[in-house]
Amino acid sequence: MNPYHFYCMNNKLSINNLTLFITFLAFSCRATAKEENKINSTASPLSLHAGNEKYMMIDTKQSVLTWKGQNLSGLNSQTGYIYISKGELMIENGQLTGGTVEVDMNTIEDKNHGRDNKLVNHLKDPDFFEVEKFPYATIAITSVVPVNDKNQNITGNLTIKGITHPVTFPVKFEVRNGIVKADSKLVIDRTQWDVRYKSSKFYDKLANQTMSDSIEFHMKIIARK
């Protein structure tokens, strides 16, 4: 074969091979870019989160804690409110995983008579919550166990009058449009936090004046980004 023809053939083959290689490389780059875009799209944070978790600040103007106490017979009960001073909830992958709530005990009020009355003033005294010495009560969430899509059981450390005990209670929880709504009920034995006034555990012969050791708290919490 003519050496010139042989050189031309080899040169054409090299060019063809180079063309095939460039085409393959370009195709591979496009495919890789598509895969990376797909992965990045999948891994993009949800609108609720920064990364996979987000601290949501409690809206203190729309959140409230309702309390209920009664005598031992249950015939005479009192209901009122306490307001949240600050707090935050930690949301991870759309679920509640932690948080803290601080309650201002100076905001105790009676449902029917407001804050400035004999009952409320007595609740602030050492017989009950000793508010001047212990102005805040707090709960810090330590664990959350899902029950279903909207209901969870929360365990946390509840501190009242400087005394801390663990408590567990159910919470109905919802996240929608960047807003968290939590609704829960907690019943405690007040004597565990040194609230002993007219308790049958510490006072004898109180008859129908004996007060129940149980205090019920109903918490409605709104939290936002």
TrEMBL record:
<dbReference type="Pfam" id="PF04264">
    <property type="entry name" value="YceI"/>
</dbReference>
<dbReference type="InterPro" id="IPR007372">
    <property type="entry name" value="Lipid/polyisoprenoid-bd_YceI"/>
</dbReference>
<feature type="signal peptide">
    <location>
        <begin position="1"/>
        <end position="33"/>
    </location>
</feature>
<feature type="domain" description="Lipid/polyisoprenoid-binding YceI-like">
    <location>
        <begin position="55"/>
        <end position="224"/>
    </location>
</feature>
<protein>
    <submittedName>
        <fullName>YceI family protein</fullName>
    </submittedName>
</protein>
<keyword id="KW-0732">Signal</keyword>
<dbReference type="InterPro" id="IPR036761">
    <property type="entry name" value="TTHA0802/YceI-like_sf"/>
</dbReference>
